[in-house]
Amino acid sequence: MKDFTVPDICDENNEIQIGELFLNSYGAINKFYGQIHTAKCEHSNSVVKELVQNNGEGKVLCISHTGSELCSMVGDQIAQTAFENNWAGIITNGYIRDIEVIKNINIGIYAFNSFPKKTDKSKGIGEKDVPIKIGNAHIEPGYWIYVDTNGWVVNKEELEL
Predict the structure, then answer these.
(1) Does residue 145 form part of some domain?
(2) Which is deepest, 29, 102, 116, 158, by most CB within 10 Å?
(3) What's the rounded Cα separation, in Å, for the pair 102 and 64?
């Protein structure tokens, strides 16, 4: 992995989007980056499960939870599958669960908070690789994200670090 800090990226790049939604780290890795794939989910995380089945080498999954009911977009099974398929990380403006297990999985996972309720699969399957918003940041599939314990930034292209 390239050596970087998000503050250094902010100091050296004027065109990046700085995420203004404060997220908590839950995975065993606190720093990661990669090309973005997106999932937009109202109440079902079916597309999240589908996406993490793919090879995630050099990729980060960004999940926008758009539903009004609290539910977790990521649990230990999704986190483990993402790790096994080489995803660099997952971030969501929503919730995750099984945090006592996820903290030992060697993947980066940032979320708004934890919540123990699973998703409702009967309420839509969601959309994959569509433009989303997480907080103030407009995120498109193919953009790049850089995450560490200081925060996160998004750029249209890979940064030279």
Answers:
(1) yes
(2) 102
(3) 20
Q: Which amino acid would we find at residue 140?
A: E
Beta strands in the chain (DSSP E): 17-18, 24-25, 32-41, 59-65, 72-74, 89-92, 95-96, 108-111, 113-114, 127-128, 132-134, 137-139, 144-148, 151-155
**Is 160 within a domain?**
no
Structural domain including 67 reads: 6-155
Cβ atoms of 129 and 48 closer than 8 Å? no
Closest CA to 114 of 157, 146, 74, 60: 74
Side chain identity at residue 10, one-letter code: C
| Residue whose C-alpha is closest to residue 50's, from 35, 42, 61, 59 | 61
For the segment 115-152, what is each residue's pLDDT rounded down to a tens digit? 999 998 777 789 999 999 999 999 999 999 999 999 99
CATH code where residue 121 lies: 3.50.30.40
49 domain-assigned: yes
**Whole-structure pTM value:** 0.96
Q: Does a structural domain hold residue 161? A: no
Residues 103, 60: Cα–Cα separation, whole Å: 18
Over residues 32-84, the pLDDT tens digits come to: 999 999 999 998 999 999 999 999 999 999 999 998 889 999 999 999 999 99
